[in-house]
Amino acid sequence: MVDLLGPQAPPARPPVLTVSQLNARVKGLLEEEFGDLLVEGEVSSWRLYPSGHAYFDLKDAAAKAGAVMFAGRRRFLRFQPEDGMRVLTRCRVTLYERDGRFQLSVLSMEPLGEGALEIAFRQLHQRLAQEGLFDPARKCPLPERPRRVALVTSREGAAVQDMLRVLRERAPIVEVVVVHTQVQGEGAAASIASALRRADRGLARLGRPADLIIVGRGGGSREDLWAFNEEEAVRAVAACGTPVLSAVGHEIDTTLTDLAADESAPTPTAAAERAARGWAALSREVQRIPGDLLRLLRLRLEEGEERLAALGRERVFRRPEAGLDALGQRMDGLFDRLWRETRHAGRARASALAALLPRLRAASPRRRVRQGWEGLIERLRRLIAAQARLRERKEAALAAGAGRLEAVSPLAVLARGYSLAYRERDGALLREAAQAAPGDRVRLRLHRGTLACRVEEARAEARLEGGSE
Question: pTM to 2 decimals?
Fold first, then answer.
């Protein structure tokens, strides 16, 4: 049979790929094919690593897929995912090249059923409550009449104007310091925490510590108020050493900063009224004082008039001269009695002194002084004699000791004509002629002065000891 098409070409050989190349191509195909997806499922095996990345599985009744949410994406979550929670994720299909494992890279996540904000609120509330941040025992009472109040809020909002108006009208004596902060949007929680630290410790460092801090804002949606539910702002409220009054939103709104603060108010206006309450009460009391004083003065005047009228009816005021005559006679009698008593007492004392005079003369101290003086002179004379005898004995003992020292002194020996010879090169004392060689320089110590000599000849002199040379 004739092949009209000509000879057939051999089949093409597929390219040879390494495992890394294969995984890279599969990853590219998956990401290019699927793009961003919305995947619904149940969270399982949620694991958070120190790097901030979270690894978990998304599953349904029939299958599951591994997933990862990197730290840069996870920090935007407003709640903490938990095992068993049903979520809706926006993700990308990809491949982990090193292990060749298919996985979902999650970009965002929302809970199904209960909202993300409700879950975040409940989780953070539970965790902070376990730490004791909402414990009433750690809260301190607000000052009754604060002198300086710091308002931590936005200076552009209506809330700050309402609070300033109330404080100006009800407590004009209060010094108000507005500490501006962002109250909603990204970064608002960090801004609130920073403003609280400035109001608490910054004013104290400036020598103007606040007596009370009011933190809050006007009403808004749950999302608008969310910065006051974030952990950084709540912990900053709890860490303040200055009493904190929280006033966020309206009466129906409750935030975690309300629970962490020492006290909360339903609105910013109510918070300002609470801060001014003590001063307003004091102002009312001060305003009542003039009326009370006037009523008291009238009462005292009426009592005085009644007493004066009663005194006018007394006999002593109707005939005052009668009382004066009686008093004059009584004074004359008392004067006579005083004169007699004084004369009698004077005579008695003169008699007693006359009786004591002979005894005083007998007990005169002159004789005792003279006797004591004579005894003192006798003792002094004996002391001088004993001192002279002691000095003579000590001088005799000293002379005897000096004589003994002189007898054994080497200087005394030298004075009798002896000398000491020292070898000049090493200062050794020469006791025998053999210790010096001809030519050695020797220094002789005499009784007075020294001589420098040179040895011409060294002879050992014979001596007899026990009959031998």
Answer: 0.47
